[in-house]
Amino acid sequence: MKLIIAILREDRVEDTKEVLETLGIKGVTFLYVTGRGQQKGRVTAWELGESLNRNMRMQLVGARPGEELPNVGSGVAGSPLHRDTEFAFGFLPKRMIIMVASDKEVNLIVQAILNANQTGQHGDGRIFICPMIGAIRIRTGEQADKALS
Amino acid sequence: MIWAVIRPESAQRVIKALDITGIGGITCLHVTGHGKEMGITLGAVHYTEIPKEMLMIVVPDNDVAKTVTIIRKEAKTGSKNTPGEGTIGDGKIFVTYVEDTFAIRTAGKAGGT
Questions:
Q1: CB contact, 8 Å: A41 with chain B?
Q2: B36-39 contact pairs (CB < 8 A, 24+)
Q3: What does A6-57 look like in DSSP terms, one character per residue?
Q4: Are B6 and B71 within 8 A, CB to CB?
Q5: Do B28 and A117 touch (CB under 8 A)?
Q6: Mind spelling out the 3-state secondary structure of B59-95?
Q7: ipTM summary value
Q8: Which residue of B has its CA nearest to A127?
């Protein structure tokens, strides 16, 4: 048995659920977490433009009400919000999914999670696989692989 | 893989210290729980769910000792009578194995245990 811990983007969780359901993986636990990786919570203006509403963007660039907002993600070099301008947020909201699977299912699950979550941008997340030495179904007391199915 | 259950107040200090050492990836979970003291009694009310911050950090084998030392140093609270001795409820650190790591963006195996 293996414990699979995956840290995902919030907006990819629904897709991941669907894929896991088609594979017949039933037991999954979802957690709301915050985290950061090698980028230390940096996001680019382009990613911000994708995910933030106008008010939040105005606060970030310090624009006064009524003032024209710089065109986020326009790609104009020298503009204060060039699409590659980075903001440091520290910890970003993420979803963690945890599941325990039998050894032979692990590869399938990892591939499914990879397929459902790859955007190619930083922040796609990580998958960790750890050994798990026991599982018990509380209702019946079944053990090991029987407790999973 | 290091799981550290620490006081929410000391989380920022721990994270800052890890930052300086260059430990990049950290995941934070807000959890509640109690230790062997079975919670805390304040007046007539007994609390069994005390809020804690749980940090999940995956580092290469060589960095485990260093990371644990930093967390211990920063998460330990001093009390008036015994400065730096720590107090009940400072938390616990658990270290476990990771067999495999995948970076989703590149689908590649990332190093580290």
A1: no
A2: B37/B88, B37/B89
A3: EEE-GGGHHHHHHHHHHHT----EEEEEEEE-TTTTEEEHHHHHHH--HHHH
A4: yes
A5: no
A6: CCHHHHHHHHHHHHHHHCCCCCCCCCCCCCCCEEEEE
A7: 0.76
A8: B102
Does the structure show a pLDDT above 60 at A70? no
Say whether pTM exceeds 0.80: no
Contact A5, B2 (CB under 8 A): no
| B53 neighbors B30 (Cβ within 8 angstroms) | yes
A72-131 per-position pLDDT tens digit:
444 444 445 555 666 656 788 889 999 999 999 999 999 999 998 988 878 888 999 999
Return the structure tokens found at A9: 């983007």
Report chain B residues whose CB lies below 8 A from the CB of A36. Answer: 24-26
Closest by Cβ to A36, choosing from B25, B103, B107: B25
